[in-house]
UniProtKB/TrEMBL annotation:
<keyword id="KW-0813">Transport</keyword>
<dbReference type="GO" id="GO:0016887">
    <property type="term" value="F:ATP hydrolysis activity"/>
</dbReference>
<protein>
    <submittedName>
        <fullName>Hemin ABC transporter ATP-binding protein</fullName>
    </submittedName>
</protein>
<keyword id="KW-0547">Nucleotide-binding</keyword>
<dbReference type="GO" id="GO:0098796">
    <property type="term" value="C:membrane protein complex"/>
</dbReference>
<dbReference type="InterPro" id="IPR017871">
    <property type="entry name" value="ABC_transporter-like_CS"/>
</dbReference>
<dbReference type="InterPro" id="IPR003439">
    <property type="entry name" value="ABC_transporter-like_ATP-bd"/>
</dbReference>
<feature type="domain" description="ABC transporter">
    <location>
        <begin position="3"/>
        <end position="221"/>
    </location>
</feature>
<dbReference type="InterPro" id="IPR003593">
    <property type="entry name" value="AAA+_ATPase"/>
</dbReference>
<comment type="similarity">
    <text>Belongs to the ABC transporter superfamily.</text>
</comment>
<dbReference type="Pfam" id="PF00005">
    <property type="entry name" value="ABC_tran"/>
</dbReference>
<dbReference type="InterPro" id="IPR017911">
    <property type="entry name" value="MacB-like_ATP-bd"/>
</dbReference>
<keyword id="KW-0067">ATP-binding</keyword>
<dbReference type="GO" id="GO:0005524">
    <property type="term" value="F:ATP binding"/>
</dbReference>
<dbReference type="InterPro" id="IPR027417">
    <property type="entry name" value="P-loop_NTPase"/>
</dbReference>
<dbReference type="GO" id="GO:0022857">
    <property type="term" value="F:transmembrane transporter activity"/>
</dbReference>
Amino acid sequence: MTLIMQNISKNYQDGEQVVEVLKNVSLEVKQGEFVAIVGPSGAGKSTFLSIAGALLTPTSGEITIGGQALSSLSTKELTRVRLEKVGFIFQGANLIPYLNVKDQLLVIAELAGHRNSEVKQRATQLLEELGLSHRANQYPEKLSGGEKQRVAIARAMMNNPDVILADEPTASLDAERGYSVVQMIAQEVKRNNKAAIMVTHDERILDLVDRVVRIEDGQLH
C-alpha cells in the first residue's frame, strides 16, 4: 500500500500574516520503502508527518493511502484510517503507565474493535520479534528507554497498518540504543512490506533507510 502526498501546502494565520509551513510538497513512499525526512528545526518536518498520518488537514493538496484519498473521508472515517492504516512511533514512547507491555498492544487492537484470539497471537508474535517476550507482564516504569521505544514500535505495528510514521524515534536514546531501535523499525518495514517515513535529526542512522529527503523552508529537496 503506497502513501502518496501530492502538492501539499499548509498555511497558518498569525495575526495579519499568513505563515506558509509547507509549500506545494509531493512525496511517494512505496510498500517496503523506508524514507527519512531531515532538515533544520522549524523546517516543517513535524507538520509534514502529522499531515501524512491524517492528524492535520492540509490547506491544499491530497494524501492517498493505499489508493484511498483522505480528502473525501468524514471525521469518523479519518479516525478509522488513523487507527487501522497508520502506525505512529512518537519521540517519547508515550506508554500508558498503568498497562503492562502486552496490554499496551491489546488496547490498540481494542480501540479498532478487534477482540479475538488472533489479536493476542499477534501481540505475542510482535513482542517476540522485538525481543520483548520476557517483558510482556512488566509495566513501563520497569523498562529501559530502549525497551520502551521497542514497545512503541510493536504498538505501532499492532493493527497491521499500511504506513508507519516515526517522529524522532531516537531523540531520548543514546547512540547505540537509537541505532538498534531504528534497525528494528527498518526490519519491520521490510518484513511486513510497509511504507514508512521517519523524521530525524540523527545523521548516524541514515544508512538504515532507503532514501533521505531534505526539507528546508517548507520545501522538499
